[in-house]
Amino acid sequence: MRASAFVYPWDVNGDPEAAAFVAGLGVEQVTLAAAYHSTRALTPRHPRHRVVTAEYAAVLYPPDPARWQGRDLRPYEAGDWAPGDAYGEAAAALADAGLEVHTWVVLAHNSRLGAEHPHTSVVNAYGDRYPWAPCIARPATRAYLVDLAAEAAVRPGARGTELESLGWYGLAHLHAHDKTGGVALGDAGQYLMSLCFCPHCREGYDTQGLDPDELAAAVRAALEPVWRGSAPSDGGWAGVEKLLGEGYANGTRAWRDERARTLQETVVAAVRAAAPEGFRVLLHADPVSYHCGANAGVDPAHILSVADGVVVPCTGGAGLLTPFAEQGRDGAVLAANLTVVSGMGGRPDTLAADAARAEDLGATELRLYHAGLASDGDLARVRAALRAG
């Protein structure tokens, strides 16, 4: 199967050996970050540094001033961790090494945006803001995300893009020094704690026949036994309905699904309008539409009618591929995303078997997370697996 490795610009820039090293793994493609959230990353082979700290979510290229002039919401340029056109420099080196370059664009995940523009954030039923999670119901936020996607995805020479966080973000974030694991929220609790009660979402619930004040009170009441540890909060969507009641549960989901679906449609259309012919648009996706996070919850039939395919998390098993494969859409890309960094829970030693299992379940391509973060030993196993396959 065709394989692509995820790479950051700082893995390549300043290291004259990096592009050839990635190409030597046996991948045909790289998925190179063009817009990315804050992170602290190891660079175990770089000749100039070992740790890169990206202090805030930023674009890794110079944004177009004409596109963003006079707008309150606009992308932040990277600091010294990715100066200038860091993306363009890395992309050129990788292309010279014979690799096809696709952009990697993180959208609705931006802590600095939430800190500087608090009104953009998801607000839970208790009134707590989530600065890392822009509310995708807000018209101004949606407009910002659409233009960011079109600009960051369609960089010079890119042959396609992979859009991450194109949907709702919620409580689950793995925030710096995260300490939210004291109560096991499960699927249902995570959903309730991720419901947004900003002014736009309150109006949206009203369109579904739900009084937003009564709904917020119902959410808090439903969570009370969860906080006490006296009620389970798992059980998938049935668990949400049990905790919150079917009427409230289905009304909130209808509003949130509609906002996510229409944003995904608009973003993909904007990217395609800006892109050359043959440019591929994929989404990092979860086949359960009410799920939040980097792998946006989607309806498989809908998203495969909109985008060229999906990138699906498969490190813990490839079962999430099945709902997409069952759609039977000819030509759709179903990329199995496998972590190959053993220190991050990846299994490079079983890559060949995991890839074969993913292919049996419908995968057409592989994504390997992450060529810049993995040790030499991990990548030696990746190289051997790809050569054997």
The major beta sheet can be summarized as:
8 strands, parallel, barrel
Q: If you compute it from the alpha carbons, what radius of gyration comes out, rounded to the nearest whole angstrom?
A: 21 Å
- Give the fraction of residues assigned to helices: 25-40%
Elements, N to C (H/E)? EHHEEEEHHEHEEHEHHHHHEEHEHEHEH
Strand fraction equals: 15-25%
Mean of residue pLDDT? 95
Low-pLDDT windows of residues: none
Question: What is the strand tally?
Answer: 14
Quick summary:
This protein is of the alpha/beta class and 389 residues long. Helices cover 39% and strands 18% of the residues.
Core attributes:
389 residues, globular, alpha/beta, 15 helices, 8-stranded parallel β-barrel
Walk me through the structure.
By secondary structure, the chain is α/β, with parallel strands linked by helices. The chain is built from 15 helices and 14 strands. The protein has helices spanning 9-12, 18-23, 65-68, 86-96, 111-116, 139-153, 186-194, 199-207, 212-228, 236-244, 246-274, 300-306, 322-325, 351-360, 376-388, and strands spanning 2-7, 29-36, 39-42, 51-54, 58-59, 100-106, 121-123, 129-134, 160-164, 280-286, 296-297, 309-313, 333-339, 365-369. The protein has an eight-stranded parallel barrel, surrounded by five helices. A two-stranded antiparallel sheet has the order 3-4. Strands 7-8 form a two-stranded antiparallel sheet. The N and C termini lie close together (8 Å). The mean pLDDT is 95.
